[in-house]
Amino acid sequence: xxxxxxxxxxCKGINIHKTYWRGKIEVHALQGVDIEIxxxxxxxxxxxxxxxxxxxxxxxxxxxxxxxxxxxxxEKRVSEFSDDELARIRNQSIGFVFQEFNLLPRLSxxxxxxxxxxxxxxxxxxxxxxxxxxxxxxxxxxxxHHRPNELSGGECQxxxxxxxxxxxxxxxxxxxxxxxxxxxxxxxIMAIFDKLVEEGNTLVMVTHDPDIxxxxxxxxxxxxxxxxxx
Length: 230
Ligand SMILES: Nc1ncnc2c1ncn2[C@@H]1O[C@H](COP(=O)(O)OP(=O)(O)OP(=O)(O)O)[C@@H](O)[C@H]1O
Ligand SMILES: [Mg+2]
What we know:
The protein is an alpha/beta fold and 230 residues long. Helix content is 35%, strand content 27%. Strand 1 (9-22) and strand 2 (25-38) form a beta hairpin. The mean pLDDT is 94. It binds adenosine-5'-triphosphate and magnesium ion. Magnesium ion binds at residues 53-54.
């Protein structure tokens, strides 16, 4: 019975290590992380500055690969993927939201949101229709032709969330998504995340704010590149 209700695994990391080189010095950013994320989970990753949170979420989000260990996304062994393969799976299956929004300044909100659809080879008419609908859903129907510098921080982050959602990703990652926002605007972003999880999405968010982390249903704590108990 328990097995029947158990949700499928979206991604799984086994003994993930990441070593950076700073000149001749090795930095062991991740030192043997095991992690499994199931469909419709809402997870926050916490830990001190330098504990490896961004490194981990970048690997989980296919922006980077581990130095050692295995990483599977929907049973595909991503840790062995080439850069091209990584870019493809990222566009198809992953939504990523950054602290600094990472919008292209010369493009309108609509064009920023539509960009992943360009890479996915969708027709212009479909790109516009879909991007407009998702921006409207996020309350930005009146802002679709604005460029990032004509939008508030909260609006920029909502555009970035729309862009992350546009290809209907299997999983959404957010690295300190409220880090550049005042607390009221941060709460608005968290309300959007709550709704996305309610609608069935899978979400993993890095934060060092315990109030923000409490929105999640599971908290993973990192310490010196390892997952700790408390
Ligand atoms: N590109 C890089 N080159 C060298 N060292 C790096 C690189 N990226 C991260 N590091 C180091 O790896 C460790 C983990 O960094 P990471 O950015 O994952 O930490 P974090 O938990 O996200 O910290 P913060 O809360 O400050 O964002 C740190 O010691 C950091 O200095
Ligand atoms: Mg970080």
